Amino acid sequence: MREAAEGIVGDWTALGVRGAFLARDIDTGEQLGFAIEEPVPLASVVKVPLALVVLDLIAHGGLDAARPVTVDPATSSVGPTGIAAFRHPATVAVGDLLLLMLSVSDNAAADALFDLVPVADVDARLRAWDCAGIHVRHR
User: pTM of this prediction?
Assistant: First the structure.
């Protein structure tokens, strides 16, 4: 495994590309990687902590999964899938926004959920859960 990781580093260096890589055995915790302490932007991966916080709110009665939310493409993020690709406003339940956000990486669905659960709330909930290595700064 170390040889594979070193090969990736060498290839990326030759291409002039920066990055990080981590592989972890879930059963043993053994890991192999490089640049794993470097902070990196989450991009669409931010949808996972957002989903966890929304699901926790639903589970504890703070948010109704059936609550309808109207998403207007004129004011939401664009993207190639889901509501983000729509040309007209659509009303979708919170639970379905979660499905779209996680299954097809729908940016507009994520925006709508961030409108319900602000970035600061998601970040604060991660702190409360002792997830110190993940910081949500913006959508």
Answer: 0.75
